[in-house]
Amino acid sequence: MTRLINRQPSRYSRLVLGLLPFIILFVIYLVTSDARLAENPSDKLLPSMGSFADAIIRMGFEPSKRTGEYLLWQDTFASLQRLGIAVGLSAMIGLVIGVFNGMIPYIRSPLSPLVTALSLIPPMAILPILFITFGLGELSKVVLIVIGITPVIIRDIQLRTDALPSEQLIKAQTLGGNSWQIILRVVLPQTMPRLIDAVRLTLGSAWLFLIAAEAIAATEGLGYRIFLVRRYLAMDVILPYVFWITTLAFAMDWSLKRISILAFPWYHSAQGARND
Amino acid sequence: MTKTEPPIIQINNLWKEYGDNVVLERVNLSVQAGEFVSIVGASGCGKTTFLNLLLGIEQPSQGEILLDGEPLDPEPSVERGIVFQKYSVFPHMTALENVMLGQEFSESSLSSRLLGRLFGSARRAAKAEVLDILEKVGLGPAADKYPSELSGGMQQRLAIAQALIRKPRILLLDEPFGALDPGIRKDMHKLTHSLWEEQKLTVFMITHDLSEGFELGSRLWVFDKTRHDQQAPERFGANVTFDIPLSTGQENPEQLAKLQAVKPSAA
Fold this sequence. Notes:
- The complex is a heterodimer of chains A (276) and B (267).
- Chain A has 276 residues and is mostly helical.
- Chain A is 78% helix and 0% strand.
- Chain A is built from eleven helices and no strands.
- In chain A, helix 3 (71-103) packs across helix 4.
- The chains are: A mainly alpha (276), B alpha/beta (267).
């Protein structure tokens, strides 16, 4: 009998074991939902699969009676646009400031304490300031996400830059590189895969800030819709929306990982099989 | 090589101290172009500090190091090539790109200065030169591989090719073969020796392996302290206590015996 720590599930049983918790949760839901609905057919807390299907068709595939829009897609587009702009902006700012902070002492000295201080401000606490300053439109939502995740990305990139072996930088200097050339050819390419990692890790917080901002002031968006239908206890809409958001987040995470593997094979081969 | 030629490296009354801790004291040496200097000594006796001074990442506390009669640049530059024990190559570039970086940094063209890259005919010329030197170190077939796909020995070959592409005045080797298997180490010795003869290099090599120092060097330096203070060992620095000319290619048993006799006190 081998030790438990040495026993590996096969490929097939790994798949089954991975799916098992989801199936159990689903079955528990079905049973409890049935039990509640048998007692009170107009119960709203745990809707049946049929009401989910109705809600999904109503939100996603029929034009809204009031505006004539397909609400699910309109919300998705609005939210993804905000998220995309904000995360892209944060990644760009984070990369530039992180690399320069890491490489140039005369930039690091004034900027590093500032970045640390900013990263300690709870972004939600300054949301009112953002609404007052930037109005209730798109800008304040994007700015909230940027303020929330950029400091994390900056610090991560800076750590990555610091972790480059000094031998590499000395070597680059003996090859005649000036500061700019070394940053561009040696440092920047090596921080790119780390940037993707940092974006993947901060996507969760980005969604959090997005939905919080939409809940407070918006006229469309996934977070806005969830908080709107909350008033009617419309679990048949809220749960599919949550499921949809989760799916979108998963798809983003997965695509970023694929992009990283395709674009930076040297990074992933050096890391070995630890990439799950 | 005659002694009337000006030395390539002239070291005048060199001292290096960190606060009260004296690492090197009163080092006076000169090296002619084409010499292969093996540097040995116990750990902590200032070999690496000496190499860092030559490399320009540390500055002398007193005295000076002259390269071709001029004081060394206070930062690493193209006159000095370096091969470390590891981390010498760039993991995100193929072997070819690793070596070509030297030329891409150096051209005076706009693309080199703005982007650190070469294009068109300049790139083709650089590539031909790089393939040539990769062939010389035995990496011709591996030109398109990333360092993580190369063995330890091949990575060091790559590091040597990279260090030679800019034709440095002096080549510094910091325990370059310390992490390699004995068999591969022998191959690397052959390669280093033939490159040294063929390209008329001036080499400084730190090594822990005395026989390696004898086999490759044309001159052997032993770093050790000449004065000891039992109460304050850091008060006195090391110097070159033995400066032995070697006939390369064969070990001189007499010299080896003499050196091993003094070694225990050094260790």
